Amino acid sequence: MFKGILDYCKGIFIRNKRESEAPEAPKQDKHVTRINQLKQELTSLTYGYNKSLAGLKADYNSKLTEYERYYQQYKDVFKQYTKKLASEHDVKDAEQALKPYEESLQEASEELDKVQGFKKEDTLNIINQIQELQDAYTNALAEEIQQTANKLQHQKQAYLKGVVSVGKAYQDAIDTDKVIERHLKEFGFNHNAKMAEMLGIKTEKAPVSLQHLTISDNEVNQALQGIQQYK
User: Fold this and answer.
1) What is the DSSP string of 2-19?
2) Residue ranges covered by each domain of the chain
3) pLDDT, tens digit (0-9, with 9 covering 90-100), for 105-146
């Protein structure tokens, strides 16, 4: 007898444990998972490169400002030289003063171009991987869409049956009043039909109006665009 009680309690524990466990989420297709990973990699890569490029561009612009200042000085000296107001030695001194800024600007430009090239190369590499998977990826998405659409059709039918049930409940109240009225009338009594009115009052806060039960085209379009309003 004790063993029977123990087995019974054990059975309840196992059943309650199963009921409390959340169902596993459907496993995502490996191609969809990989594409999502690649998109995340692309986002992270772009963020990292853009951050580096922003610093390099700031450095380039700073060196460009310095270069332009010394280049303007060189132009001024050269202009004076053409007017015989400055010597050839003055021009060479201006050239020597300009040279380190010119070289520094060239190095900054090359570094900027190099990193932009790396960004382009890495970006195209990830995009190429995505494009190689596009057939299998879209097949997986198409299957998911088909399954979900079929499920929605079943849910639509269940929803409409629920709406029918709501409507029938109201109609039942009206019909019941009519039955009472018909039988009382047989014996010369009048009947003040109140059931439909009472039911209306008691379900006043229930979301059963056409506005509540209808899903608008706009709501469907937003949902198809991935705009989530309902959680």
Assistant:
1) HHHHHHHHHHHHHHHHHH
2) 30-139, 147-231
3) 999 999 999 999 999 999 999 999 999 999 999 999 999 989
- What pTM value is reported for the model? 0.66
Mapped to the 3 state alphabet, what secondary structure does 82-146 carry? HCCCCCHHHHHHHHHHHHHHHHHHHHHHHHHHHHHHHHHHHHHHHHHHHHHCHHHHHHHHHHHHH
If you ran DSSP here, which 8-state letter would residue 204 be given?
Answer: T
Phi, psi values for residue 190, rounded to 5°: -95, 150
d(CA 50, CA 74): 35
Beta carbons of 49 and 90 less than 8 angstroms apart = no
* Total residues belonging to the chain: 231
**Across the chain, which distance is largest between two alpha carbons, in Å?**
133
Per the CB < 8 A criterion, the answer to whether 74 and 95 are in contact is: yes
